[in-house]
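PROTOCOL LOG
Step 1. Enter all chains and additional molecules of the complex.
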Amino acid sequence: MTLSSARMDNPSFITVPVPLGDRAYDILVGRGLIESAGARIAALGARAAAIVTDDHVGPLYAAALAASLEAQGLRVSVTTLPPGEATKSYASLERVCDAVLAAKIERGDLVVALGGGVIGDLAGFAAAVVRRGVRFVQVPTSLLSQVDSSVGGKTGINSRHGKNLVGAFHQPSLVLADTALLDTLPLREMRAGYAEVVKYGLIDDARFFAWCEANWRGVFAGDHARDEAVAQSCRAKAAVVVRDEHENGDRALLNLGHTFGHALEKITAYDSTRLVHGEGVAIGLALAFRFSASLGLSPQADAERVEAHLKAAGLPTRLSQVPGSCGTVDELLDAMAQDKKVKGGALTFILARGIGRSFIAPGIAADEVRTFLAGEISA
Amino acid sequence: MTLSSARMDNPSFITVPVPLGDRAYDILVGRGLIESAGARIAALGARAAAIVTDDHVGPLYAAALAASLEAQGLRVSVTTLPPGEATKSYASLERVCDAVLAAKIERGDLVVALGGGVIGDLAGFAAAVVRRGVRFVQVPTSLLSQVDSSVGGKTGINSRHGKNLVGAFHQPSLVLADTALLDTLPLREMRAGYAEVVKYGLIDDARFFAWCEANWRGVFAGDHARDEAVAQSCRAKAAVVVRDEHENGDRALLNLGHTFGHALEKITAYDSTRLVHGEGVAIGLALAFRFSASLGLSPQADAERVEAHLKAAGLPTRLSQVPGSCGTVDELLDAMAQDKKVKGGALTFILARGIGRSFIAPGIAADEVRTFLAGEISA
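Step 2. Run joint prediction.
Step 3. Record the structure below.
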């Protein structure tokens, strides 16, 4: 079975169009894309490109990407930042903006983000604000960034008040998701990214969830299932983004599993040795389905099926799996109330009426959540 | 004679609509607007307002503005920054964003910029990026900001590579231009702002330039001519911005006088004791008309009329009036070539075929400029 119905750019590449009017762009998915990146990026018509990367990814791919761009006649600069969430800071923003300006990037030129979500968010934000907006290209190098952060145009940095609280909506001009780059990704990061893949099935595509159950080993192993999973995730996210570019409505569905997940990240102090984002999302997805079942909205069997698949893929699904402590009921509630998706003091959850049938549930009473979490903690 | 054909909000206030589709907003112009600011801002539907101001303006008006907002039931915070161009920095951006987040401003709430161009540009940029965009209101307190920087949605900060190189297009939700606030403005600042008023006539409205010649004393004295001049300037700028919101074409006409002006600001090291922006613009306007005349594009008589009016209003019109040195021909050319409006190495000027008949002239040869400037310096 193949999910692909998109036009093919090349027998081995899948093209996912993101039809956002005058901000429309393509996401290309496939093995070995980085080798032809220069020609594809040069086709956008720029005369110069400022590559932004980190100390993990830069040494592996930056020189080849730069050479590939230079071979097309582009002027190229490379800025390399420390890896990790702490790089999404005001100081890094200043550093990247200054580097982009020093590289004499003008409005027709490009910033190229080569890295995971941190680099994509930071470099995209710099591109949004240098000269009040220059174009940028995403070359995401992790599964998480290929299926999530590189699609949709959300860019930004963290503030002392929370993650991603300062930023811009700025769509890329092109996304090159080279799935061969994932061959060197640590298994834990691969699993964490896979939680977001599963999420797209759970939101509104039961068929894709079933496909994941049948094909997840190929995704991890790197056969064509990986390309399909990345492409289908991008299609799913693009469809939501096209309906609601600036997150005034439907886009909130993408937060399935994230209200619980963000609370767990907060409680573990964003310490990636304890919990990475995708692990929080995996536990959050399992909790969202068990919470939906406990409210009588969704069959218990669906919650069990969700948990079984996440477990099979090596992901955590229970609060007890959070290393150290997952916090008390009140600490979890506090952490959820501080999440930026909380509006006007009411708790908004993404709940489900079954696999592939999620919906936005505003105004969930704190007491309902409290009772549910107390049961989960003592389980 | 009255220039006003806009709908009247109140016998003493003029409303200038800026019809930018779903980003449309009104500019209100008149004496005493700040007294009713609370009700007007509250009518936008926010629950909280973060006022951003500086040490010059804050002590005069912030408490009254805050009280006026609180009387409407809004939660209000005030952040006060040092006055001056140095405040348009990354550090100030971080400070304002943090203050806005600490004030728990959500997407429906407001940032209120109370000050001149520096505060408007900085607070507007913070509003553009906090939570990827919250609304903001401009309460401009200088003539320059009332007729220029508060209209058009350009926001930003300075970089070590140049002024306004990092920012966003972010339209305000409302502009309240209280012309009574200008009563306490130093005469030098009033004159500097007036150079931008004259500019609008010179760009494409010979009738308005003639009106300025007849009414400039009233503008300075603060009679109804001041309100008319501010309103007509806002109408003129709004018309250009509506045609070209993101500065891909016509908006460049607003740079009449600015290529020379920016070069002079650069050569005087942005030292406001030597030259303020509007003074650079005044000299730049006179130079643009004399350059146009020297190229045989515009009547010599028009250049003389422009100079006569700027002189009458107390503004400089000659390079020899720059305190200290205005630099050599080569220094001036270098400074112009570094201006961000230079594209692809060619010098672009805004020239004129006469008063009210300016146009974008790309690809002006450096030698033409050199010859003209040599004559001006030795004059």
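Step 4. Note key features.
Chain A touches chain B through 30 residues (CB under 8 Å).
Chain A is about 45% helix and 20% strand.
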